[in-house]
Each structure stands twice: as structure tokens, then as C-alpha cells.
Amino acid sequence: MNSRPVWLGKPKPIAVALKALALVLICAVVIFPFLVVISTSLATKQQIDANGGYVIWPTEISFEAYKQIFNGTQVSRSIVISVGVTAVGTAFSLACTVLAAYGLSRRQSLFQRGLLSFVLFTLLFAPGMIPVYLMVKQLGMLNTYWSLIIPTAVSAFNIVIVRGFIQAIPHELFDAARMDGAGEWRILRSVVLPNSKAVVAVVGLFIAVGYWNNYFGPLLYLNDTEMWPLQLVMRTFVLENNVTSNAQAIPGYVAPPAQSVQMALVAIATLPILCVYPFLTKHMSKGMLTGAIKG
User: Fold this and answer.
1) Which residue, 10, 32, 28, 31, is CA-closest to 20?
2) How many CB atoms lie within 10 A of CB 213?
3) By the 8 A CB rule, do 16 and 30 touch?
4) Start and end residues for every CATH 1.10.3720.10 domain found in the chain
5) Rounded to an integer, what distance in angstroms lies between the CA atom of residue 10 and that of residue 125?
6) Using one digit for the tens of pLDDT, what is the confidence trace for 245-286?
7) Would you say 56 and 35 are in contact if contact means Cβ atoms under 8 Å apart?
8) 63-295: CATH homologous superfamily?
9) pLDDT by residue (tens digit) across 198-240?
10) For the segment 110-158, what is each residue's pLDDT rounded down to a tens digit?
11) Mean pLDDT to the nearest integer, 63-81
């Protein structure tokens, strides 16, 4: 009688074929929408009309939609605003998260148990929209970029995740650092951060995506349309179906189809996250595997 576990046996060809088929289907479902977005943004009006509004593979490539977006429209400014808010917000939020997680991971910290209970309490009872708005108003942050950064800078969930990761670092490293005369700041900089790159990368990616895709915050706190980030500008185009450009003043200028401009905006909004993600893949893999292997 064969006593080997099932997972150690050689898979049957039919099982391998089914797994390969499932993987191909999943990849197709994920890649197909991106292909439609990019293809439609590069298609001409004739191709879009011939294909009923969306193009899978353009036979003729046109960059008119991208030219209209970047030629004197609000999109260029909104991209700079979104990049700035995302960069500053991510750095500030990561600093607050790591500092709070490190303090709550040390049992000798002042009021460690009480503060940890307070952080966990916020996971169960989140503040509503009106209290947050009143707080932002009382602090004088309405119609400022700080209203997009401060209210969402600290997440109890992220603190708990980073705290658990720091607690998994061997205590011998902390003891050795203290024997060498290192203080808490030196331990954080020389021991905790080098050993926490994986979780910092993963949490940083989640934070950056949250700031980049933030739509409701700017809609609620920003009254000046000149300060709107990319997500609100995209919403304005979807509702009004119009993006003004300096090129429209040129005699004989023919504006690209609305579907191309809309898909070009979607591609521009998606591209930064797609560019950053590959550089964090190795850290994300390490973060998921941390704790799975003992010894």
C-alpha cells in the first residue's frame, strides 16, 4: 500500500492540463480589459464606429487622444497634483505607521497596552463622514492638499500588520544592538527597517494606491477645481464627455472620439501603479512567505 501523501505524488496529465487551462483563462480575463483600454485609446474614429465603440486590436494607431489630453488641458496639472499628493502622503503615512508599530511592539513602551487597545478599538468603530469633515474644517484644512493626506495618514490595520512583522524579528538582534549601546532610534534605523523591507514595501504599495485612487476626499474637501487630482478630472470628463484643449482653437482641427479620450485617461491613471508594482514583487513575495518557514 502506498503511504506517500497525495501532495507528494506526481500529478496526472489531465490535472496538469486543467491547471494550465485555468491559468490561461484567468490571465485572459485579467489582460483582456487592459488590451481593450489601450487599443481603444489608440484607435481612430472610423475603427471605433466600425467596432461599436470599443476596439480589441487597432489596425491603425492614432495618438490624437493623448495629444488632446496633454495639450493645454487640466489633465497635465491634475497628474502632477496626484503624483505630489501620493508621494508626500505615502512617505508621511509610512513614517507614522512604522513609528507607531515599533512603539506598540515594545512592551516597555509607555502606555503600550492602553494605546494598543485604542488602536484596536478603531478597527471596530470607524468614524463617520460628518465627524471627519468637521475635524478637517476645524483644523483649517479645507481646500488644501493636507485634507487629502492627514485624515487617511494612519490606518489601524496597517499598524497591526507592521507591528506583527516587527514582533517576528528575533529578539537577539535587539539585545545585541542594546549591548553595543544603540538607542531606540538607532535600533529602529539599523535593525527594524532593514529587516522590515518586505512589509514596508507591501504596506507602502497599498497606501500609495489608496492616495492615487482617492476620489471622495478631493470631492468633499476641495472647492477649487484647479486643485483637483486626476481622479476628479476623470469623473468630470465621464459626466460631461468633454476635455477642452488648446488644439481645438486650430482651424480644421478634428477632435478624437470621446471613447479614445476616455480610455486614454484610464490608461494614464493606471500606468503609474503598473510601473511601480514590478519593483515591489520580490518584497511582496518575501512578505507573504515570512513566518511560513521556521528554523
Assistant:
1) 28
2) 15
3) no
4) 63-295
5) 50
6) 544 444 445 567 777 888 888 888 888 777 777 766 666 655
7) yes
8) MetI-like (1.10.3720.10)
9) 888 888 888 998 899 888 888 889 888 888 888 888 877 767 6
10) 777 778 888 888 878 777 788 888 888 898 888 899 999 998 888 888 8
11) 80
Q: For residues 155-165, b (16+ Cβ closer than 10 Å) or e, as one string?
A: bbebbbbbbeb
Q: For residue 273, which amino acid is it? A: I
For residue 190 the three cell numbers come to: 539599523
Set of cell numbers at residue 214 = 482617492
* pLDDT score at 280: 67
